[in-house]
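thread from #wetlab-drylab

HS: before we spend reagent money on co-crystallization trials with magnesium ion, can we at least see a predicted complex? here's what I'd submit
DV: go for it
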Amino acid sequence: MAANMLRRVGGLVAARTGISTRCLSTGTGTRVSHAQAALRTADAVCFDVDSTVITTEGIDDLAAYLGCGDKVAELTAQAMQGSMPFHEALAKRLSAMNPSRDELTAMMAEHPLTLTPGIANLIKALHLREQHVYFVSGGFRQMIEPIAAQVHIAPHQIFANTLVFNDDGSFKSHLDSEPTSRAGGKAKVVADLKALHGYKTVVMVGDGATDMEARDIPGGADAFIGFGGVAVREKVKAGADWFVTSFEEMMPSVTEADGQWFLTAEDRARLMTNQHLDFMAAAQQQQQQQQQQPSI
Ligand SMILES: [Mg+2]
């Protein structure tokens, strides 16, 4: 009875908020059920950042701010198509941008990065279930840390490139020791995390081919969920275990399956904002009134 009540209330909340509480969808992908089960049982979930956690490519945002957007976008496209080694493309892009510490700070203040809709709730649900969450990005740590803090991802849970500045604040280089500065770096980070922590199941989520690589190396991710909510890459759409176009599609795998809630009622309530809580209370009251009415 309580579960039915929660399901009905959840449905009403979904209608109002867009948070899906449907049973597991079939979705598209080569191994959808496998990916959904992996997400449900994962010890850790690794998210790409650009065009996944955030709605843009951070490096392109910085380049546009610095007035060299076209040149850097071209190098980014070449890197994503695999026609140029990643570390070479990264060095060329940074050389073209030559960002100072002050310019980076000003850009982030004037054009803060934006979280993709649904990601905050998904990460909150994963955290409530004590599933570890990591950001694994080819972008820059200095740009990612502020947006990561908004969803309670600590600096040590971020694997990304690091910009290095001279004492006067001018650009010096990027930290060559970051694995994400190299081809195959994201996959290496995911495999290393899995081995270091002894994770049984790890899921990688991202929009790019380098994200999908994390599934395809020995000791890598157990499932890859392609994210097409910002940009659709055909190679990723074709190769993903499960391809989604919104984070809401992933929520049922974390919160419920076959009518069984994976979150307690208390945790679900914490997942909602105060507005949602108010609406849930109203929905519960409506439900009680309906139950008191004699059935026809
Ligand atoms: Mg990306």
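DV: The CA atoms of residues 8 and 271 lie 17 Å apart.
HS: ok that's useful, forwarding to the group
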